[in-house]
């Protein structure tokens, strides 16, 4: 039986990696038209991994032209669903075949622990591609109920050229949630990874080609949001933008669409998710563990992180001790160490942003109970201790704004109605959770919570079969499940007169 890799093993593997660092357009790696590059820096130790092509408007023009030409040619868009299924299944298999390499790239690039890159991100990405591959030949078109003198067909058609703009916290997994349904439906896709984490996207581009995707059907443009991202959002040849990221940037894409061709826009944006623990929660130890992992998993860089802990005042002090006991075991470590549960923040800018919020929490009068400082400063990397605030007022900035880091705000309540009022008192509505043994209370609160996902007696559970997305300024549109295909297709009605 093979032994599990160690920290030294991963360090050796990292030393032997080669990096794809050019844009992928029309089936080939090419430099940016301007020749510009940017440094891809590992947050593990602050060292430069490689210089990546910095794509701009001219590169977007090239990618859109390639994607449009491939779409119009029809080798993919008009392929039988069974053929698209075959290619996408092969694509998923290749992702799994290269799991170790992709997991290592993900960890080096954005700092998440290798244990999760290898067990969550890469297998999850492959599963998403495979699931949509299997789904696409099981979706039927419709015949409308009409008078016998007519036949009305309702058919789905691919929307055309899709720009998928994804974040840095789950680079390949978030990409796969868009690639799977968009490609399965027959579209051509231009993937723009975040500038902080382009490496896995660039590597899987050639895996898609190897799997059988025609040239131009899957393109990858690394670059900055204000250049490549904006150019995609404004491009008259892009039919749909599927974006995951901050609410601030999501609003820009709505503006870009309005000022260009009214392209379809789907947004999965920020969150400030409430995790509500009632006094009758069935298992307080399980709830405490879920609360800790809900905010400290992936260094808190999760859109639906359990960043607001709402606890019944009668159990709050004892419960918070349990949460902090779990958090104390999740101290940051080298992400290449398989024993590490909490890795590095994605870069120095995000590290400074989170530390500023911690200072703001203190200044506003919240009580710092744990953490609050930068960790492993001698490593050259970007690490922050698990941080817990108590006595937080929901009007404070740390309770209202998305921090995207390992910072927990604890708020006490005296009745479920008060908990609901506090939970919904935010611009966001991505996710929420309720812990109670009373099924009636669980149903009532789940119905009242203005969130796209509500968990009961668990946190961050779900599968590719269930839709994911938010209410309010957490965006609109859904990733995962069959519902995700809606945004990548158009419905066409064909009315046939059968009257003699």
Using the CA coordinates, give the radius of gyration. 23 Å
The tally of strands reads 24
Which percent bin holds the helix content?
A: 25-40%
What is the tally of helical segments? 15
Q: Tell me the distance between the termini.
A: 75 Å
Described by the principal axes of the CA atoms, the overall outline is globular
What portion of the residues fall into strands of 2 or more residues? 15-25%
Oligomer: single chain
Biggest sheet strand line-up: 14-17-18-13-12-20-21
Structure notes:
It is a single chain. The protein has helices at residues 7-15, 57-73, 81-97, 99-110, 114-135, 171-184, 199-211, 225-234, 247-259, 284-296, 316-328, 348-363, 397-400, 416-424, 439-448; strands spanning 23-25, 28-30, 37-41, 48-53, 142-143, 150-158, 161-165, 188-192, 218-220, 240-244, 264-268, 274-277, 308-312, 367-370, 374-375, 383-384, 387-390, 407-413, 428-429, 431-435, 453-456, 471-472, 475-476, 489-497. It is an alpha/beta fold. The strands form seven sheets. The chain has a seven-stranded mixed beta sheet with strand order 14-17-18-13-12-20-21, with helices on both faces. Helix 3 (81-97) runs antiparallel to helix 5. The chain is globular. The model has no long low-confidence stretch (mean pLDDT 97).
